[in-house]
Amino acid sequence: MKLISWIIHSLNPALTSDSKRAVMSRQVIHTIVEYT
After folding, report:
1. Could you tell me the residue range of the domain that residue 28 belongs to?
2. Please, are residues 26 and 18 in contact by the beta-carbon 8 Å criterion?
3. Of 13, 5, 34, residue with least CA distance to 25
4. How many domains does the chain have?
5. pLDDT per residue as tens digits for the range 15-27
């Protein structure tokens, strides 16, 4: 459970900011969603 919590807390800032890394992370997630 701690691992899942850590992953969620790590992803939140990465996905909600406007940094280049956050934008790339969102693009990867959108690509994964398209293939599932």
Report:
1. 2-35
2. no
3. 13
4. 1
5. 788 888 888 888 8
DSSP 1-36: -HHHHHHHHHHHHHHHS-SHHHHHHHHHHHHHHHH-
As a whole number of Å, the end-to-end CA separation of the chain is 25
Going by C-alpha positions, the residue among 14, 34, 32 that lies closest to residue 22 is 14
Model confidence, pTM:
0.55
Single-letter amino acid code for the residue at 26? R
Which residues, in sequence order, are CB contacts of 13 under 8 Å at separation 6+?
A: 22
